[in-house]
Amino acid sequence: MDKMKVRELMVPTDRFPKISDNASLFDALFALEKAQEAFLSGKAEQRVLLVEDEQEKIIGKISPIDLFKGLEKKYNEVNVEETLEKFGLKYIWNNMQKDLSLWESPFEDLCRKAADVHVKDFVNIPGEGQTVEGDDNISKCFHLFVVNRHDTLFVLEKNQFVALLRFSDVYREVSRTMRECTVG
């Protein structure tokens, strides 16, 4: 596994369901449900929902937790680094909730919010800690998965997202390699 490259385990973006960044939160909810149903029934091998812009370029992904983020726009005001520095680890969540009034009325006008909020308002756009190149060693990915706790890494080629590296695929490969080991 030491010499294995990301390219050997990555899954091209054309094998994932997609949604436009102009779609509503309602549309995203239904698309996520459809992707989950297709995955569970064996009709699809992916349940990750990728987001594409008007030029059909992949810009990120959304998950059910991102829908919650979309319902509470104040999450865009949260800067984790500043919060950690300002409040310290022990009090982060309580202070963020108090300072930003997060989830004071989570279900007020829920349907209106779901129609008015668009995917581009809450899409999970991968940062430096969630991107790799196809020719990177898999060992680089171990660090990114563990430290950043992502379930997928985006594979870049010429500054375009071309594939995803799923933790489940890397785990399966590590598990297979470990089973082949002879200890003694």
Report on the structure:
Strands 1-7-6-5 form a 4-stranded mixed sheet. Strands 2-3-4 form a 3-stranded mixed sheet. The chain is elongated and about 60 Å long. 20% of the residues are buried. It has helices at 25-40, 64-71, 80-87, 92-100, 110-116, 138-148, 167-180; strands spanning 11-12, 18-20, 49-52, 58-62, 131-133, 152-157, 160-166. The longest helix has 16 residues, at 25-40. The protein is an alpha/beta fold and 184 residues long. The chain has a single domain (6-180), classed as CBS-domain (Roll). Helix 1 (25-40) packs antiparallel against helix 2. It is built from 7 helices and 7 strands; from the N terminus they run E-E-H-E-E-H-H-H-H-E-H-E-E-H. Helix content is 40%, strand content 16%.
Helix-strand layout with pairing:
Layout: E1 11-12, E2 18-20, H1 25-40, E3 49-52, E4 58-62, H2 64-71, H3 80-87, H4 92-100, H5 110-116, E5 131-133, H6 138-148, E6 152-157, E7 160-166, H7 167-180
Parallel strand pairs: 2-3, 5-6
Antiparallel strand pairs: 1-7, 3-4, 6-7
